[in-house]
Amino acid sequence: MSLLEVAAVDAGYGAQAVLRNLSITIEEGSFVALVGPNGHGKTTLLRTLSGLLHPTRGEIRLAGRRVDRLRADQIVAAGIIHVPQGDLLFPEMTVLENLRLGAYLPEAAAAAPHRLEEVYALLPKLQERRFQVASTLSGGERRMVGIGRGLMAGGRILMLDEPSLGLAPIIIDQIYEVIRALAASGRTILVVEENAMRIAEMADRMHLLDNGTISWSGGGAEFLSRPEILSAYLGG
Amino acid sequence: MDVVLQILVSGLTIGAMYAASTIGLALVYGALNMLNMAQGALLAFGGYVCMYVMDSLGLPAPLGLLAALVTGGVLGLAIYALVTRPMLGSANFETQIFIATIGVGSVLQSAVLHLFGPQPKAQPLQIPGGLTLGGVTLPWQNVLIMGVTALMLAGVAWLLGRTRAGLAIRATAQNRVAAQLMGIRIGRVYAQVLMLSGALAAVSGVMVSSLSGLLPTMGADPMLKAFVICVVAGLGNVPGAALAALVLGVLEAVIQYLFGVQYAFAILLALVIAVLIWRPYGLFGTRQVVRL
Questions:
Q1: CB pair distance less than 8 Å for A105 and B183
Q2: Does residue A150 surpass a pLDDT of 90?
Q3: Given an 8 Å threshold on Cβ–Cβ distance, is A89 in contact with B167?
Q4: b/e per residue A103-113 (b: at least 16 CB within 10 A)
Q5: What are A66-108's pLDDT values in tens digits?
């Protein structure tokens, strides 16, 4: 059984379906990348998985348990953690308060002290900045808080929506070092990325989301070796 | 000098009355983007409940206050369950809920009219006498109003700053989507905020009516002032609203002394307009401009 199974899902905003008949499975411990042109449903898929949206058709299962009718807070408790695009930090709170909110649910709160140490070890900058108010951080620091806050929740699968968006190249390298380390630790990760070439070098599995559905799936190396996939992707 | 102190006492009393109901409004707007136009009717309801408990049931004043507090909380919860919840997620929520709460306000005001009649009544929660220091008299009634308000503000500060529920409320006010992604059940946060706001309004109504008496329409003026204060402070900013309430209360007392009661509100509004031209997002507002 796969950790996450999405079967024939339709979802969108109001009457307009963005995702159509979308199916995808994610294995425990794998590093999965979701690529594809902008506006074709990558963020909508993450929002549907985290319960901010509900599918109008199809099923989503986490470790066999149906989660597609649960509220967003229940899905967090079930273990799907969503680090949203643009970070969505709590702007008037400090770095530490933001991190603590990541561990808001009782189970995560119990593990918070040692998780905080893990987060600080992985992202030492956050320890330095822990009493700084989030709205005064740089873009790279904000991204780190967003990821750290997601890690505080624990969970079974970590979803990162465009972790490199809007950052300087040198900061993107740093963020991807962190993500690489997380993947190496055996965590299940689903990352949405614009830069397919970069992510293909790291991903166990790639899914191309095109026009609301998965049009191609395969290994990262395979993605790199098949120029026709890339050209279809770039041609979109 | 004595006159200055006298004005200060009277101004802080006015400010304290405004503060309690204003922070309720600010909390609700901050967490839900909901302007609660039923706030005035909640104020009146609280005042009448306290009067009923003390006069008709013959119970002591603290129980009257407690009854007002609880009734306000229950009414707040009812507004959430019957009005806010069904409208959440609808397009134009802000406009729709604004209009809907005007309706809730008239229903509540009619209920007060029906239950207690249209004649003015006196609020039995009175402490006669005062403390005379030098040439300045500090009426116990003012001490009571300031004391009760200070207690409520301290309670709200403790709740928001030191409890898990308060953390969830602050997180929801700062970013609703992120709050959900942290595992916060925002429906529950909305319910709690409306309960808290209703309770604050009801107690504030007891305080207002202890000075100016009970009338079914007594909530209109404090609610208008509370809105003005919220806008001046920056909509949704809770500590800013409390501070602005005290400042505007003192200002009102000064204007009343210098120019007379009839000019107080007009001059206050002129000052507000000036502030908003200078800082359209409010004195303490940091977020984008909210246009009403």
A1: yes
A2: yes
A3: no
A4: bbbeebbeebe
A5: 999 999 999 999 999 999 999 999 999 999 999 999 999 999 9
- Checking phi first, is residue B183 left (phi over 0); if not, alpha (psi -120 to 50) or beta? left
Query: Could you tell me the CATH number of the domain that includes residue B149?
Result: 1.10.3470
Q: With CB atoms and an 8 Å threshold, state whether B182 touches A50.
A: no
- Chain B residues in contact with A73 by the CB 8 A cut-off are 180, 183-186
Q: Chain A residues with CB inside 8 Å of B180's CB?
A: 51-52, 72-73, 76
Give the gap in angstroms from C-alpha B190 to the nearest C-alpha of chain A.
Answer: 14
Q: What is the DSSP letter of B288?
A: P
Domain residue limits at A85: 29-50+79-235
Residue B119 lies in a domain: yes
Q: What is the pTM of this model?
A: 0.90
**pLDDT per residue as tens digits for the range A120-149:** 999 999 999 999 999 999 999 999 999 999
**Which of B230, B238, B222 lies closest to B275, judged by CA?**
B230
Angle at A218 between CA A213 and CA A221, to 5 degrees: 135
ipTM rounded to 2 decimals: 0.94
Instruction: Please tell me which residue, B243 or A229, carries the higher pLDDT value.
Output: B243
- With an 8 Å Cβ cutoff, is A119 touching chain B? no
Q: Which chain A residue is nearest to residue B90, measuring alpha carbons?
A: A14
Contact B182 A89 (CB under 8 A): no
Answer yes or no: are the C-beta atoms of B281 and B289 closer than 8 Å: yes
Q: Which structural domain range is residue B244 located in? A: 2-278
Strand order in A213-218's β-sheet? A80-83, A157-161, A188-192, A31-35, A205-210, A213-218
Q: Flag whether residue A76 sits within 8 Å of chain B, measured between CB atoms.
A: yes
